[in-house]
């Protein structure tokens, strides 16, 4: 099957630079995706965008180039609840990748067990309206109760303005809960303002909540973009990410978000994106927690400290 990309689609950046920041040994890229390839793993009929292909081989080449040891491959919405591309990536990672799936209520216990054997450790619930159709909360709660006994967690993706409405649902989840991209704060608002304070309270009051401090390229309004050698990119996102890292150092994760679906203004150089990390995790201790200790605890607990 061949697919035509969404008009205006930006492809991932070819030939990224080598980061100046040396990642701690054993670092995990804890949020990235594979797209297709569409000819092998067709995009889902219910998708809201059609991306360029981004294969497991290209993802793992990027991992090695940037200096990561492992990946967490998160099911992208363009594949709906068809997890084959993501699971194929896990199976061909030599144990170096774990995954987060999207499942529907109809998933069988046997399918969940097979996913676990392949390396899946969580499910993703998406509330971003431009990406998915609405799924009833009772279906999501049922899924959460089914995956909890496997030791999996729930990854949630939502916009900051929707947190008040989703609060009761999120705080009822029986598992570890991982927020994608800091709950998408509006970084034109003050870091000490009420909107971000609510997010920080969400994490403070609920110690099962973790956050990915990822996607400055998505959240930034004023830039500058991580392109052309820029090692001070996305300044407006720094205070937000730094606040989360310093407030909750044991519950933060970082990921490239490669291949960066739906970016409109530019596609970042992933090497320069890695150079963003020391601006938000400013000590070697914080960097090791963010990039090694925390993701290992969540995704490879059996290898922790090994
Ligand atoms: O903001 C986005 O467009 C986006 C989309 C997806 C996805 O389509 O799965 O994943 C992300 O992490 C971010």
UniProtKB/TrEMBL annotation:
Annotated Gene3D superfamilies: Metal-dependent hydrolases
Keywords (A to Z) from UniProt: Aromatic hydrocarbons catabolism, Hydrolase
Any one Gene Ontology molecular-function term assigned to this protein's record: 2-pyrone-4,6-dicarboxylate lactonase activity
EC number of the protein: 3.1.1.57
Keyword Hydrolase: yes
Catalytic reactions on record: 2-oxo-2H-pyran-4,6-dicarboxylate + H2O = (1E)-4-oxobut-1-ene-1,2,4-tricarboxylate + H(+)
GO process annotations (BP): 3,4-dihydroxybenzoate catabolic process
InterPro entries referenced in this protein's UniProt entry, alphabetically: Amidohydro-rel, Aro_Compnd_Degr_Hydrolases, GLI/LigI, Metal_Hydrolase
Chain ranges of the Amidohydrolase-related domain: 28-299
Superkingdom of this protein's organism: Bacteria
CDD domains, sorted: PDC_hydrolase
Similarity comment: family membership: Belongs to the metallo-dependent hydrolases superfamily. PDC hydrolase family.
Descriptive protein name: 2-pyrone-4,6-dicarboxylate lactonase
Organism for this UniProt entry: Thiomonas delicata (Thiomonas cuprina)
Taxonomic path: Bacteria, Pseudomonadati, Pseudomonadota, Betaproteobacteria, Burkholderiales
